[in-house]
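STRUCTURE:
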């Protein structure tokens, strides 16, 4: 009795390798990703804030409330970036494509939607933190915005992105 192993089609193999390269890039170039993410936060805050906003990309820091009584700087640390929520989605997507090449387009679409959702959720988390600092002051607002409510936003947003990814990738 011989077991035949189905080989992955060439384009699917290229996609799998590309996804794994992107995943490795997120790990090894996370500083660059965090710089882009905090720059996006600065752009969003500039639109919604009535006070000054400044981004220092080399420190992955956004300063907001400039000119107010409660200016504050937020640094995008490795633990707070959306990269580590996107990373498992990319790896799972690569595995799914390797195992079932015919669902490649669905997986890539689902991966794009889920990754975008995770990035948006992380931006919403930053906005929540800024709003609570402006409302409750630096000490209380930062605690509620970063530790408690910010974590809940990340967990629920990440879970919703994961559900969307699985649903979009596996539906027929």
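SEQUENCE:
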């Amino acid at each position: 009795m011989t077991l035949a192993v189905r080989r992955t089609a060439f384009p699917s193999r290229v996609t799998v390798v590309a996804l794994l390269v992107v995943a490795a890039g997120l790990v090894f170039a996370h500083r660059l990703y965090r710089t882009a993410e905090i720059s996006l936060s600065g752009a969003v805050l500039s639109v919604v804030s009535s006070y000054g906003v400044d981004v220092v990309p080399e420190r992955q820091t956004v300063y907001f409330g400039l000119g107010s009584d409660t200016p504050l700087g937020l640094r995008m640390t490795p633990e707070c970036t959306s990269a580590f929520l996107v990373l498992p989605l990319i790896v799972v997507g690569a595995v799914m494509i390797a195992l079932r090449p015919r669902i490649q387009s669905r997986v890539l679409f689902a991966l794009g939607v889920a990754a975008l959702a995770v990035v948006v959720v992380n931006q919403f988390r930053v906005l929540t933190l800024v709003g609570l600092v402006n409302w409750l002051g630096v000490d209380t607002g930062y605690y509620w915005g970063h530790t408690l409510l910010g974590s809940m936003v990340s967990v629920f947003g990440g879970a919703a992105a994961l559900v969307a990814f699985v649903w979009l990738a596996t539906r027929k």
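REMARK: Strands lie at 52-56, 61-66, 72-75.
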